[in-house]
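Final report, results section. Input specification for complex C-07:
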Amino acid sequence: MARGRRRVLVIEDDPETAEQLVESLATNGYQVDLAVNGNDGLNRGRTCEYTVMTIDRMLPGVDGIAIIRRLREGGVTTPALIISALGEVDDRVRGLRAGGDDYLVKPFAFAELLARVEALARRSATVVKDTVLRVGDLRLDLVSRTVSRGGRDIDLLPREFQVLEYLVRNEGHVVPRAMLLQHVWDLHFDPTTNIIDVYVGRVRRKIDSQQAYPLIHTIRGIGFCIRAPD
Amino acid sequence: MRSSTLRLALICVGLFGAVVCALFGYVYWSTASYVRGRSDRAIAAEHVILRQAYDRAGRDGLVATIGQRIAEERFEGGLYLVADASFAPVAGNLKVWPTVLKGSAGWGNFDAPEWKPDAADRPLLRASFETLPEGYHLLVGQDIDDLDEFAEKIEIALSLSILLTFVLGGFTSVFVTRRTIRRIEAINATSRAIMQSGLGQRIPRQGTRDEWDQLAENLNLMLDRIEGLMGEVKQVIDNVAHDLRTPLAHMRGRLEKAYASPRHGEHDQSLIGDTMADLDSVLRMFASLMRISQIEANDRTAAFRAVNLANLAREVVELFDAAAEEKGAHLDVVADQPVLVTGDRDLLFDAVANLVDNAIKHGRDAGQVTVEVAHDKGGAVISIADDGPGIPVKESQQVFKRFYRLERSRRTPGNGLGLSLVAAVARLHGARIEMADNAPGLKFRLVFPLLAGAGLDNSVVR
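Structure output:
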């Protein structure tokens, strides 16, 4: 697998969280380096050979946001995912301003962490230039904004098309609810209601009903995933 | 002197007394010098008349003039004496040249044994004198004892006033201090009682509506508010404990059962899934609570910018279209023109989304939900109306409390935090929440203060 060689830098001081992070990233094919304090993280980050790095917001020694700022000042562009303790919602803005690329609040589901790391990893690597996206027998035309499955056209509202496009662009990967809300609606909060599920549910009905196999899957507690059967 | 009020009062009395002393001193000094000055001018005028008589007609003329003036009583209380070079009296109503008057000319005060010999004290006399060209000495004066007495009376009156000022001031200070200390002591006693036995105590009022009563009233209102907040916090904690216990108990029970039974792939899978879902609901509840308290702490105003409520309403409605459809409800938006407010788009979206979600959830099946954005006299208004059963009047304020749920809503999903969030967001934006009867149904109105100069702006701002 191509992604087997991709390296992730984890900067995390809590041993248990660090172990879980390293393990779940490693089992998903990443080569993981762990830095247990700010200075170590800063030194390793400067070597520039990482695909993605995750940075804990609160670290002994150097603050997580300060690390990102200093790396960015030093010309390091490695995408950074900031991981912060619950209740520091306003930190999101500060972290992103300092040069962070995404933000995840503790406690989090590891599937969501993986999805976000994936998204950051892909962002730097590939730019999709295709005007037509395909998953199984589903076909999205990005120019005419039309969708068809098995040759039959499906009517989608513009926003439904955006939802489907985002899922398809992340084919095979879990898309957490919050990421969907962020990219399709430009909203930065966890909805207190189950509205995203209902919305995606309607998209799914339009795409998957009366078809040979389902494409859109709900990943309980996390989000959604579009994939064709093997 | 431990009381600062008494100290202050005494300082005031001291200052006031000093000013009174200075003022009375000045009055005394100016009155006395005016009266004396008048007497001196009269003596000087008489002196001039006699000197002119001497210059005109010599010694005899002078003696004659003196005799005439005494006889005619032209100068009341006047004293005259003409003496020769060896100060032996020649004419006049004084018998002896006063020894204190020395030199060739000048003024002087003296007394004379022969002047009013029957008076108890020798009266004070004042005179001007000069040595005439031929060696004679002329003395012209007046009995100024009356003036002296007058000045003395003023002196006594003023001194008494000053004394009275100090005495009255002292008494008033003590009285005011005692009164003040009594009121302060009442507040102190209540504070101590509160520290000892809880927030139930209130500061007694005298019913005088003075500033002390106002202070007591304000402190009491503050205590009421604190008591209310404490009650609310306790309620929240109780509710958190209750709402936490249910999913935690489920999780524990499930895990305990699984621990005792042999591993079974499919069964374990669903058990772990259920447990994660329960954990998620607990975490979501915490996140909501944190969010509300953060919004209430007012530390998000930095992210404020112009938000077009019309666009926002359309986006919320679009998002909830699917949810409404699922319930067979109609969800409409009426937003013809841009309506701008200053705010945090994420928070406003979340608040409006919560209201729309409530309207769909608690409204009638296959009902009608309308979101309307408009300008009003009072400001920008976004209203969310349904045609469901509404909220009973007596519960209309309760619904904004954390975890509050109407009895009939116990079974619908939710944690009772939605409207608390709406209330917190509204407060952060300075907006007013109004709940009205939509006959039938419920209408929520969020009224935002007018954005300066943006009311008629047609530019669309996201």
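The mean pLDDT of chain A is 84. The radius of gyration of chain A is 19 Å. This concludes the modelling results for the funded period.
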